[in-house]
Amino acid sequence: MGVRxxxxxxxxxxxxxxxxxKDIQNLYRDWSNTYDQHLQDGLGYRAPAVxxxxxxxxxxxxxxKILDVGCGTGLVGIxxxxxxxxxxxxxDFSQDxxxxxxxxxxxxxxxxxxxNAILKLSDESYDAVICCxxxxxxxxxxxxxxxxxxxxxxxxxxxxxxxxxxxxxCGFDQWLDIAESEQRLVLI
Length: 188
What we know:
Elements: H1 8-16, H2 21-31, H3 35-42, H4 47-56, E1 66-69, H5 75-82, E2 88-92, H6 95-102, E3 110-112, E4 128-135, H7 144-151, E5 158-162, H8 164-167, H9 172-181
Parallel strand pairs: 1-2, 1-4, 2-3, 4-5
């Protein structure tokens, strides 16, 4: 049975089973051509549209510089473009997913980077960060949020999803409590 024969649920199970960077690269190499179909059609994935609409409540200027973190194939980028945003960069760990995103022509720049490392991006360089589906089992932990706050301009929004199964398991709840107590962010 090839990757194209796997169901959407089986591919999602595979995503939750990754244990290394190599596993992640292999998963998204195999999934990049069918990812949109699996998520949208197979799983009814609506998070990109919901998250883009949330960001739009806080960013009125459609020329604002936005970073789509874990952009994958560009599902969030498409939603942002439909809302009129014209200055969106995409960042992802998988070169295969970035190539799929490039074909959608919704990003100004595409950046290959590991969120579990220091990002080669300047401090306070973005007006907003949006991140959909990246903080999940075996992928990216709460430490990456420190880097995302660093690259955001003061007072800029960070709109993201965090998988419920890992919220406590991976310490996102503790990270958020500390960041709020240190006044590094305000939770809305």
